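Reopening this one. Same input as before:
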Amino acid sequence: MILHVVKAEYKKDYLIWVKFNDDAEGIVDLKNELYGEMFEPLKDVNKFKSFRVDPELETITWSNGADLAPEFLHDHLTV
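Same output, byte for byte:
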């Protein structure tokens, strides 16, 4: 099965609740994942929480072009 993000909600700090097309859901903590040219600007929480679920890519994206693979998010789920 190819994973897709179907819903995502900002919780607090660098925590995002994510639901997938395989019905898995949970919190992803991205605090320690924001490195590199695309992700450094997202250390600003106001920029971080402005993500959306892109209907074409079917994952979380930010306006600066940053995105995370659904598989990466799925692997980092916590309850």
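So the earlier flakiness isn't reproducible anymore. For the record, The longest strand covers residues 5-12.
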